[in-house]
């Protein structure tokens, strides 16, 4: 495929994916005493038996390197009022946890006030294109009924029940 066609396909793909509403989460891991995390919209449940989920991380991600070493990660599902957390963890850099309220839960960084939390052990890593799909067995889960933070049309929003 010619480079111009590939660029056009990439742009068209990006625009089409912007029309898909996705949930927003912060994936976390612990490196000794230092927490790490990044915002993702590419995660989903995988199986109920056993409970498992998947997240997609860039192959060059520092967080992915840490998850490969520790074989564990946390999934912090963000609520509709937490777009500032999503933006904080979407940026580059090592100081994402500065001024963020968090605690250790199941040995993993859990952000305060998140409506959903999963602690996972890595069961498989699948390389695909420029990302790695991390499949995790859920070992702990907590949730409460709160409107979710979603990403659609390159903007944060939330779900509303239809009349």
UniProtKB/TrEMBL annotation:
<comment type="similarity">
    <text>Belongs to the non-flavoprotein flavin reductase family.</text>
</comment>
<feature type="domain" description="Flavin reductase like">
    <location>
        <begin position="17"/>
        <end position="158"/>
    </location>
</feature>
<dbReference type="GO" id="GO:0042602">
    <property type="term" value="F:riboflavin reductase (NADPH) activity"/>
</dbReference>
<dbReference type="InterPro" id="IPR012349">
    <property type="entry name" value="Split_barrel_FMN-bd"/>
</dbReference>
<dbReference type="InterPro" id="IPR002563">
    <property type="entry name" value="Flavin_Rdtase-like_dom"/>
</dbReference>
<protein>
    <recommendedName>
        <fullName>Flavin reductase like domain-containing protein</fullName>
    </recommendedName>
</protein>
<dbReference type="GO" id="GO:0010181">
    <property type="term" value="F:FMN binding"/>
</dbReference>
<dbReference type="InterPro" id="IPR050268">
    <property type="entry name" value="NADH-dep_flavin_reductase"/>
</dbReference>
<keyword id="KW-0560">Oxidoreductase</keyword>
<dbReference type="Pfam" id="PF01613">
    <property type="entry name" value="Flavin_Reduct"/>
</dbReference>
């Amino acid at each position: 495929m010619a480079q111009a066609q590939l660029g056009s396909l990439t742009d068209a793909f990006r625009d089409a994916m912007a029309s898909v509403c996705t949930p927003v989460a912060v994936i976390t891991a612990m490196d000794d005493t230092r927490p790490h995390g990044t915002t993702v919209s590419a995660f989903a449940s995988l199986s109920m038996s056993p409970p498992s989920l998947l997240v997609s991380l860039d192959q060059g991600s520092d967080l992915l390197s840490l998850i490969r070493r520790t074989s564990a990660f946390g999934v912090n599902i963000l609520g509709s009022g937490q777009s500032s957390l999503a933006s904080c963890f979407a940026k580059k850099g090592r100081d994402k946890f500065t001024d963020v309220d968090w605690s250790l839960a199941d040995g993993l960084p859990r952000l305060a006030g998140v409506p959903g939390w999963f602690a996972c052990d890595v069961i498989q890593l699948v390389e695909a294109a420029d990302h790695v799909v991390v499949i995790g067995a859920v070992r702990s889960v907590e949730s409460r009924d709160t409107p979710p933070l979603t990403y659609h049309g390159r903007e944060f929003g939330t779900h509303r029940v239809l009349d």
